[in-house]
Structures are given as structure tokens and as C-alpha cells.
Specification:
alpha+beta, 15 strands, elongated
């Protein structure tokens, strides 16, 4: 088949909107019809492109080329590919593959510029085509970035309480510890545990227990400084890192959290529930370095001491070599 067989489809392509096609048809005499089989590559990164391709029949798939090939968009009859790489003279940025038997009109570089020189309408249409492609690509990038942020949020945040999870803590806490050591600043870590949490679950059910976890975490996070770091450590335990905080400051912060949790009752229907927390503090003086594991171990020992001493209290454990 030759171009005459695809006259109507070609004339209706966006490149020729508002153009008397009969006045430019002769310029297309150097174009050729190309038939593609399923899976055949039309364009690929790192191979220069010197043609604009108008899809006459079939379907082309544009795929992003990275560590994995990801489908980006599908184009059908009446659409086009290759316009950006043809204009800027650089290799395509994506793979273009026939996703079904496809027929394209191959318009050489020189022919495209002859059309542009002949018709202002063709020039405007080509600019609109390129602008639309760039806009769509920018939209795809923004969507991809937003999706990435969402996924990062999902893997770093505890689904029940909304505070960060232990995975995030294991990355963020050591960085904060290192900064404090480098700046010769004190740092403290708190481990807070909801007292008698098993009794809450046994007496009122897990839904009320979940409500208690969310209420306690919300109360704690709203009573910390903006630069303090908090994570759900596991079960009914929460870890808080207090940068630039000496032992007295850590005690004040812990007592504030303990008091606010005790003060704020939890409502669930007709049930009014009051819970308390015990807190253990691990402390590193200024100018000293400590591994997170050691600091958490100190806080954990202090927490057990608080629980042994009737709960709803704060205990401390200083830095040890």
C-alpha cells in the first residue's frame, strides 16, 4: 500500500489541522510507509532519530527505559511519535514499540522542515504537538513523584497510629545521634510503654486497645518539640529521641508526656478510659558518642525500673562506656 491508500487518515492528522492538505501533499512524496510487527522497535534511546512518524493503523507503546521497562502511554491511529527528538536533534528518551501490527508514515527530517517552511499552520500545529507531549510528560513525572512520596510514606509510617515506624527510626535516630556527637551536644532517648495494656485489650477488646494506642501516640507527638523524633517501637511502646537535650531537659519532657497522657481520658462510646505510661530515659552527655542500640538498651533498663516501681513514672539511665 502507498500513501494514497491512507490519504484520509493522513489528512486528518493533527499536524495538518486547518491546512489544505492538497496544497502540501506533493511535499510528502519522499515519505514512506513502514509496517511494523508486534514487538518491533520503532525508536529507542541512544539511537538518533531523523523522522516524524504518523500512525496510520495499529498501536504504538511508549515505554520508559530504566532499570525496568515501564509502560508510559499508548498511541493509536492519527497520532504521532518522534517529534521531540527530531526537533532537538537528540536521541529519543524512551522506547517506542509496536504493541500490535502497525503501519506508520515515515516523514524524513527534511520533509518536516519543508512543511514548516511552506505552511504557518503546520508550524503552529507542530509546536502544539510538542507542547502537548511535554505537558503530558511533565504530568507523568509529577504523578510518578507523588506516587514515590506516597510509597515512601507508607513504608516509613505506622499504619495504625500515624507516627513513624521502627524501620524509619533505625535510619533517622542514628543520623541524629551522629549530629549531636559531632556538635558535642547532649542527646537523650525515651522509651514509653502503656501501662497494663494487655488488661485494656482483655477487658474492652482490641478496637478499644487500638483507640488507646492512637490516643497515646497523638498526645505524645503533640507535646514534643518540632525537632524531636518519635516512632512506634513495637506493640504498645514508643521511642522518642531528644536532640540537644541534657538529662534535666529530658526528665522535664518525659514528665510532661506522662502527665498529659494521664490527664487526657479516652472516650469510646459510653466508655471513658484512662491510661498511663511509664518512661525510661537513656542519656548521653555532650561530646560523647553512643550507638543507638546501647542508648535504647539504657532506656529499656530504665523503663523496666519504672514499671517495677509501680508504673506511671519516669526513670533514667545515664551513659555507660
Amino acid at each position: 500500500m502507498d500513501l494514497a491508500d491512507y490519504y484520509e487518515v493522513t489528512a486528518q492528522n493533527r499536524l495538518f489541522n486547518g491546512v489544505d492538505f492538497s496544497s502540501v501533499e506533493y511535499i510528502l512524496e519522499h515519505c514512506s510507509i513502514r509496517d511494523l510487527t508486534v514487538g518491533e522497535l520503532l525508536l529507542q534511546p541512544d539511537i538518533p532519530n531523523h523522522h516524524l512518524y504518523l500512525i496510520l493503523e495499529g498501536e504504538l507503546s511508549i515505554q520508559l527505559f530504566a532499570q525496568e521497562t515501564l509502560k508510559h502511554v499508548t498511541l493509536s491511529a492519527g497520532e504521532y511519535v518522534g517529534e521531540v527528538s527530531l526537533v532537538d536533534g537528540k536521541p529519543p528518551s524512551a522506547l517506542v514499540v509496536a504493541s500490535m501490527p502497525t503501519c506508520v508514515l515515515s516523514v524524513p527530517h527534511d520533509t518536516v522542515w519543508s512543511l514548516v517552511n511552506h505552511s504557518h499552520e503546520v508550524t503552529r500545529n507542530l509546536l502544539k504537538i510538542i507542547a502537548g507531549r511535554l505537558r503530558n510528560d511533565n504530568h507523568a513525572l509529577v504523578h510518578s513523584k507523588n506516587r514515590t512520596v506516597q510509597l515512601e510514606h507508607q513504608v516509613s509510617v505506622d499504619g495504625l497510629t500515624g507516627v513513624h515506624n521502627r524501620r524509619w527510626m533505625n535510619e533517622a535516630f542514628p543520623r541524629a545521634l551522629q549530629r549531636c556527637a559531632s556538635n558535642r551536644r547532649p542527646v537523650a532517648v525515651m522509651l514509653a510503654d502503656i501501662d497494663h495494656f494487655k488488661r485494656v485489650n482483655d477487658a474492652h477488646g482490641h478496637l478499644v486497645g487500638d483507640l488507646a494506642l492512637k490516643a497515646v501516640s497523638g498526645c505524645m507527638s503533640s507535646n514534643l518539640r518540632p525537632h524531636d523524633l518519635m516512632a512506634r517501637y513495637g506493640g504498645e511502646e514508643f521511642a522518642v529521641l531528644l536532640p540537644d537535650t541534657d538529662l534535666d531537659g529530658a526528665k522535664l519532657a518525659a514528665e510532661r508526656l506522662r502527665f498529659m497522657v494521664e490527664k487526657n481520658a479516652i472516650q469510646s462510646g459510653d466508655l471513658t478510659l484512662q491510661v498511663t505510661i511509664s518512661i525510661g530515659i537513656g542519656f548521653v552527655p555532650e561530646g560523647r558518642a553512643s550507638e543507638l542500640e546501647n542508648l535504647l538498651g539504657a532506656a529499656d533498663r530504665a523503663l523496666y525500673r519504672a514499671k517495677d516501681l509501680s508504673r506511671n513514672r519516669v526513670e533514667t539511665s545515664a551513659f555507660e562506656e
